[in-house]
Amino acid sequence: MTDDVPKTAFADAATARAWRKERRRSLTGLFFWIFCLLGFAAFLGTAENWTGKPLAIAFSFPVVFVIAVGIGFASVRWEHLGKMRAVLKAYPWQHCPPLGVESPAGIEYFRLPDPDKPQKNVQVAFRRYGTGRSWQRAVEEARSAGFTFAGDPRYACVVASPGLRRLLTVRPQHLHLGRDGTKPPTVSETAWRRAKEAGITDPPSLEEQRRKLLYTLWKSFQKRPRDSTSP
Question: Angle formed by the axes of helices 189-197 and 53-90, to 10°?
Fold first, then answer.
């Protein structure tokens, strides 16, 4: 990033370049899976003549499933990038030091300071954009080497790994938004206006609610008394 500190993250030319690079990568992935689907459809028409229609159809199910998952992840990533841009245009970058080893709750989870009460922390989790090692390596790098982030951890943040090599999204693991969409009493008017400007005041998605439930179950399991007399 440049020596001057811009008012918002996206005002920095390096940030804009990093975001466009992520968008090109996402679009390339989406086109790749679409071409795979079209190519397999063409291949399937030929394979029917060799193996017969029933066998060809049975073989197609796992292949189509994998391609559909690939298209789904690429589409979700594309959607996330649009939301990232709104956050980057509303918030400046802030630095977070290295987090060290993986947290007990898992490598996805960590804490960021509450903008209205810096002495308190908000637990957030990295949002997955794939199932392979690429996503995990990006998270590990951000945790171990430190990172910059933009946003409000009570709603959503964009995390940039060192050198802006990857952009990731994090979301909170507990609710700061009323079901009626009104400003919570714990959020200042200034923070609420900025969050609304960034478009991150929507209620948590099913994905975030599922993560919160799994984390709650994990904590309950950890607090379960252990039987010291067990062999």
Answer: 140
DSSP per-residue letters across 71-96: HHHHHHHHHHHHHHHHHHHHS--EEE
User: Which helix (H) or strand (E) element contains residue 156?
Assistant: strand 156-160
Do the Cβ atoms of 46 and 195 come closer than 8 Å? no
Q: Mind giving me the DSSP string for 189-213?
A: HHHHHHHHHTT--SPPPHHHHHHHH
Taking a C-beta distance cutoff of 8 angstroms, is the pair 174, 212 a contact?
yes
Number of separate helices (H) and strands (E) present in the chain: 5, 6
Quote the CA–CA distance of 198 and 83 in Å, as a whole number.
Answer: 8
The pLDDT assigned to 17 comes to 93
DSSP code of residue 9: G
Average the pLDDT over 139-154 and give the result: 87
Q: Which residue has the higher pLDDT, 3 or 6?
A: 6
Extract the tokens encoding 137: 């390596």
> What is the C-alpha radius of gyration for the chain, rounded to an integer number of angstroms?
21
Give the count of beta carbons closer than 10 Å to the beta carbon of residue 94.
15
Q: Are 155 and 172 in contact (CB under 8 A)?
A: yes
> Comparing C-alpha atoms, which of 88, 80, 87, 89 is closest to residue 30?
80
Q: What is the pTM of this model?
A: 0.71
List for the chain the helix, strand, coil content (%; round to 5).
55, 15, 35
* Cα distance between residue 128 and residue 125, in whole Å: 9
CB under 8 Å, gap of 24 or more: what pairs does 71-76 form? 71/30, 71/33, 71/34, 71/37, 73/29, 73/129, 73/130, 73/131, 74/26, 74/29, 74/30, 74/32, 74/33, 75/30, 76/129
